[in-house]
Each structure stands twice: as C-alpha cells, then as structure tokens.
What we know:
The longest helix is centred in the last third of the chain and has 31 residues. The chain has 134 residues and is an alpha/beta fold. It contains four helices and four strands, in the order E-H-E-H-E-H-E-H. Strands 2-1-3-4 form a four-stranded parallel sheet, sandwiched between helices. Helix 1 crosses helix 4. The N and C termini lie far apart (65 Å).
Amino acid sequence: MAANLSGKTFLIVEGSLLAGTELADAFSRCGARAHLTANVINAFSLLRRSQFDGAVIDHGLHNEAFDLCLELRDLGIPYISCKAPHRLQKAASLKRDADHSVWRIGDILASRADLDAGYSAIKQPAYESSASVS
C-alpha cells in the first residue's frame, strides 16, 4: 500500500453509495487521517476549518459535488471520484476497493511530489540587471 500517506489528512465525502467507513479504515492502515462527512455542505465547512492533502468524493453525488470539486481544484487539493467501495458489497470486496481508492489518491500525491521535485531541480537563470547608473 502507499507508504507516502503517513501523516497526511484526507476528506471523504459520502453520498448514498460510497462506503466511507471502509475508506477511512484504509487511510488509517496507511498512517493517514480521514475526515468523513455525509454531505457537500459539511465538506465546505471542513475545508474552511482544516487543511487536507487530498479528497475522495462519492461518484453518486453527481452535480451536487460540482462546486466542491471546483473549490478543491482552486485550493490545489487533489481529489478522486469513486463508485467503490460500495455499501452493498461483501466485506472482502469493500476492503479491496477501499484499498484501491486509497492507492489511487496516494499515487496522485506521489506524482505531484515527483513533479514538484523536478521543478525545484531546474536551476533558474541568474538575473542580471542591465540598468546603468549615470
């Protein structure tokens, strides 16, 4: 599983389908904290009070989550939309799909970290002033 999630904090926004408790457990197994909320309004409230490294949003929220996704993008918080784990799945499938969703968001964070490291490795050209004093 994604070891790079240790110490990170995630927002889980449940709709009618997503099994948020299983996702929160999967984040916990990776050393991350998860804040679980049952609706978009509470998610906005949590975004004002806490900092998040990523978010998982129930795909079943459809247009209801559109503004939330825009807000997450504006804040630079990566997010994924999930159909699984689904509340009607059997226990083994719930765990497997929860672990996969956590791996997906972890992979996005790792890719961003690699990209950030690549940018910082690029040397900025020295700036020389061509202004002369008379």
